[in-house]
Amino acid sequence: MLSVENLRSSYGRIEALHGVSIEVAAGEIVTLVGANGAGKTTLLRAVSGVQPISAGRIRFAGRSIESVPAHARVALGIVQVPEGRQLFAPLSVEDNLKLGAWTRPGVDRDAEIHRVYELFPMLAELRHVAAGALSGGQQQMLAIGRALMAKPRLLLLDEPSMGLAPILVDQILNVVLNLKRNGLTVLLVEQNATAALAIADRCYVLETGAVSASGAAADIQGDKRVREAYLGV
After folding, report:
1. What is the CA radius of gyration of the chain?
2. What angle do CA 67, 209, 168 make, to 5 degrees?
3. Which of 16, 21, 32, 95 has the highest CB neighbour count under 10 A?
4. Cα(128)–Cα(126) distance, rounded to whole angstroms?
5. What is the DSSP letter of 54?
6. Which burial class, exposed, middle or buried, applies to 169 when counting CB atoms under 10 A from its CB (0-12, 13-18, 19+)?
7. Rounded CA gap, 21 and 95, in Å?
8. How many Å separate Cα 24 from the centre of its chain?
């Protein structure tokens, strides 16, 4: 579904990605593992179109999309849940969800919102509450729900467990696993590498803007060097 070839991207004169290549097949969860500053978020932002690239190719469902603007990539089915959630804090839960469907004119938004509420029943109880008043876990549920309103084919998920208690991390990652079981493709950046590898099919390890290892998640989890560097064992 997604093919990234020799991708380079910079912030001013500082190059953050040095020829990164990854592939994500339809129906997979692929996770990106690496230290802070390794380029994981930059790679997601480049795929979604909000981070310019200086070289390389990005193909989605067989189509080159390097020149496609970010809003048009959403319409193609690439939807990002950004680090920090980036909700519209003064707006209600339900209004945030409605904004997630802005690329789908004519869609029955009430029916789509009902599906999100089935996935996250807590949000239904809080539908009229301002997003900024929610807890961190509730905000993450809302951020994922808002993304699902756009009917993604590929969900880019950036640090969904950030700042959450372990029990909420398990809940969020179980939701991601269920979405995959229902056919959604996920590219996941997650600081909790152990938890991410437990639900992922494959993994890429990024170090200082380049891929240093890749393979099946179980194989990466068993790699002694990766375990010592990123899993704390």
Report:
1. 17
2. 90
3. 32
4. 6
5. S
6. buried
7. 37
8. 13
What number of other Cβ atoms are within 10 A of residue 231's Cβ?
15
User: Looking at the DSSP assignment, which residues form a beta bridge with residue 15?
Assistant: 10
* H helix intervals, 36-191: 40-48, 70-76, 93-99, 109-119, 121-125, 136-148, 166-181
Residues 160 and 192: beta-carbon distance below 8 Å: no
- Yes or no: say if 147 and 78 are a contact pair by the CB < 8 Å rule: no
pLDDT digits (tens, 9 = 90+) for 24-66: 999 999 999 988 889 999 999 999 999 999 999 999 999 999 9
Question: Number of helices (H) and strands (E), helices first, in the chain?
Answer: 10, 10
pTM above 0.90, yes or no: yes
